[in-house]
Amino acid sequence: MYELVSLVNLRAKEKERCVASQAGKSEGNVRTQDPEGTRQNIIEVATEEFALNGLSGARIDEIAARTRASKRMIYYYFNDKEGLYLAVLENAYRLVREGESKLDVDGLPPLDALKQLVEFTFDHHHKHEDFIRMVMIENIHHADYIERSKVIRQLNGTAIKTIEALYERGVDEGTFRPGLDPLELHWQISALCFFNVSNRASFTKLFGRDLGTAEAQDSLRRHAVDMVLRHVVRSEKLPQS
To answer: Is DNA-binding found in the keyword set (predicted)?
Structure first.
């Protein structure tokens, strides 16, 4: 009888091991059938975690708990937390540059193209507050991780080339005033649109007016465009308001 009970128990345990093994294989298949989707899912969740807690405060355990990947798989894709942070940073810059690339900058008159570029930048930053926080965090780290990334430098190099070509076309056509630096122009556009997100909360609390309302944002967007155009466009070429 003892041997019979032992045999039954042994077979039951063996069945449990098989079920567990099959479940593990199924879970592994789910994760490996779409590796790029899994990787992107990790990046999206990690973006929120890093933007909220910074590089030092973010936790891989928390990221893993909110994704369809295990902690081990995160390390497989990104090596360590710094590798994941860098991938998140690269993805954030890729999104803004991809959005810019969809604009019809070359097909529009220079003045209209510049207006469209400023409007896009303002809207993108407004809709992607995590991007602004990531850039703020990276500046706390003295842009050390940006310096390590050839991807980010290449992405932003195309942004300067785009605005440089747009500006030169406007100068050649007599619409833009000559003597401006395209890099500084990019800086000025970025500054107006970046500050709208990075300092909105402090301005709202300091001066007692909510600058995040739809009405306030429409006004700030319109004035950001107007400020850039008045800086770049020859006075006689400015549209009449």
So the answer is: yes
